[in-house]
Amino acid sequence: MTDPDARKAKIDPTATVHPDAQLSKGVEIGPYTVIGPNVVIGENTKIQAHCLITGWTTIGKDNIFHHGVTIGTPPQDIKYKGERGEIIIGDKNIIREFVTIHLPSAGGKTEIGSENFIMVHAHIPHNCRIGNQVVIGGYVGLAGYTEIGDQVVIGGLAGIHQFVRVGRLTMIGAQSKVTQDIPPFMLVEGSPAQLRSINSIGIQRRGISNDALAEIKKAFKIIYDSDHNTADALKEIKKRLRPLPEIEAIIAFLEKESHRGISKKTAIEEEAEELILPELPELGI
């Protein structure tokens, strides 16, 4: 067992830490936790009891991993043959009980940014990319190669298909089934998921200007409340809307290659003409 003084880390006597693991000062390792040889853990990160962190995993500073978290086990991909791939986790994340984070397949990366809150039993799969300040509810299942943008909120028990992209500040309601890409700033809910409106409350809470909010509403109508295909909608947005950073983010999302296509399932006919935000679905469970 590793000498805690040598690593300037606090390691419970029942924990097993491989001598080649790199633990920075202030790290705490809880009872019966196992840390593998290719693991790097940044300052002041706390890992509670009965966790397993293995594989080629690098973790930043000031994270909290609750009881039973598993990181770095092989991906659920029948093509995986043991090739090396990295898991990279940023700073100040809260990872709750029994979350699983898998190694990538095909030598890629599984990446989680900073200041995320991932709730109980959520699954972060191979080759997934999660941005910053994301909230993922309990029992959420992401599939391989999904991309979750900054400040996204995913309600409990939602499922997201492989290769799907979800844009910044989108909210996905609890128990939703998402099979295609969702552009930034949207509110979706249902099985299959339908676009309900823009995420007005989330936008306002993040301090986005009223001018930008008005332009985002126009972009929503161009994409969803018309007969435009994605290419035509993109041309109309570039032509008609002001080049604010939020509109540029929507343009960049629509221009990027999509494996699944942009979701066009909407419930616009059920909403008021002014796109009044419906009652928010529950986040957790």
TrEMBL record:
- Gene Ontology biological process: lipid A biosynthetic process
Q: Which keywords has UniProt assigned to this entry?
A: Acyltransferase, Cytoplasm, Lipid A biosynthesis, Lipid biosynthesis, Lipid metabolism, Repeat, Transferase
Per the database record, which ranges form the UDP N-acetylglucosamine O-acyltransferase C-terminal domain?
A: 181-262
The record ties this protein, via InterPro entries, to: Acetyltransf_C (IPR029098), Acetyltransf_C_sf (IPR037157), Hexapep (IPR001451), Hexapep_transf_CS (IPR018357), Lipid_A_LpxA (IPR010137), Trimer_LpxA-like_sf (IPR011004)
Span-the-membrane segments of this chain are none
An annotated GO cellular component: membrane
One GO MF term: acyl-[acyl-carrier-protein]-UDP-N-acetylglucosamine O-acyltransferase activity
Q: Which residues form the signal peptide?
A: none
Entry protein name: Acyl-[acyl-carrier-protein]--UDP-N-acetylglucosamine O-acyltransferase
Provenance organism:
candidate division WOR-1 bacterium RIFOXYB2_FULL_48_7
